[in-house]
């Protein structure tokens, strides 16, 4: 019984180390709300859609949040989004 407990503990530590070492894969895009024109960065790893449904996708997918901020800044400067 003691060996089984040690084996389970070692397996748990190995899984934890593997998960902590693997990089997070996230991607983002910009959504624009129809009624206000406000643009928001949306994390695609969120399993739900934005609520309420009055929005459309305003950009292509980018790999990092920093890239999404650059896309939003560009959309604000070009007048595609409002504050």
Automatic annotation (TrEMBL):
Q: Where is the signal peptide?
A: 1-26
Organism of origin is Bradyrhizobium vignae
UniProt entry keywords in alphabetical sequence? Signal
Report the protein name in the record: Uncharacterized protein
């Amino acid at each position: 019984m003691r060996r089984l407990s040690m084996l389970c503990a070692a397996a748990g530590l190995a899984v934890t180390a593997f998960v902590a070492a693997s990089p997070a894969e996230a991607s983002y895009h910009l959504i624009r709300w129809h009624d206000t024109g406000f643009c928001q960065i949306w994390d695609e790893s969120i399993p739900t859609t934005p609520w309420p449904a009055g929005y459309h996708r305003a950009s292509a997918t980018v790999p990092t949040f920093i890239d999404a901020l650059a896309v939003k800044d560009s959309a604000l400067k070009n007048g595609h989004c409002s504050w």
